[in-house]
Amino acid sequence: MKILSVDTSAVCASAAITQDEKVISLCSTNAGLTHSRTLLAMIDSALKNSETELSSIDYFACCVGPGSFTGIRIGIATIKGLADGLQKECIAVSTLEGLAYNLLGRDIIACPVMDARCAQVYTAIFEINGENVKRLTEDEAIKISELADKLKTFDKKIVFVGDAAEICQKALGYDIAPPVIRYQNAASVAFAAMKNFEEKKLLQAAELMPVYLRLPQAERELKAKRTLRNL
Predict the structure, then answer these.
(1) Calpha distance 179→71 (Å, rounded)
(2) Tens digits of per-residue pLDDT, 170-204?
(3) Domain limits for position 137
(4) Same domain? 166 vs 89
């Protein structure tokens, strides 16, 4: 099974081609460039460098959130266009679940954390046993202090992964993933997608939708203004 996957949920963006459990090609950037400028170029590079024809891709996968509102929309729109043109099915992956797959091969509690601003993080908790990943909590946006209370209930070694890993380590302690596997990775999205494939979680291109967890800042500010007017 050959999967083309992308992750555009944060500053780091990547595109990968995997075949079963083998990474055939992986292109990534963490330079802060706009994903609309880099994503198609990375996909093209991943295809060319592995001599893979786009038509040979079986499934298209992408992270659908949480993360950057604009970044997620760019990734989803790109995958929708490619999949729809080839009449292929898509696989949606939680950004946090993809991050958890960065830590395969360990025996730990993985805690993916993404900076949600205002002393909050997007997070979920997973148990990693070698190649098995078990979700323990749902994706949510919470204060770092609330995350501290959740993590106290686990006896196993806890490892933070994601762009808020250093922030959480400073605030709460615990271990942190090394830089080379700390950030979003399209290959990990593909591995998570394989599990979703096994669970029959397949979508038509039109069904692929973002999962934001909270409203965009502009909508939050508008809602706050309306609330003040009604007081």
Answers:
(1) 21
(2) 999 999 999 999 999 999 999 999 999 999 999 99
(3) 103-181
(4) no
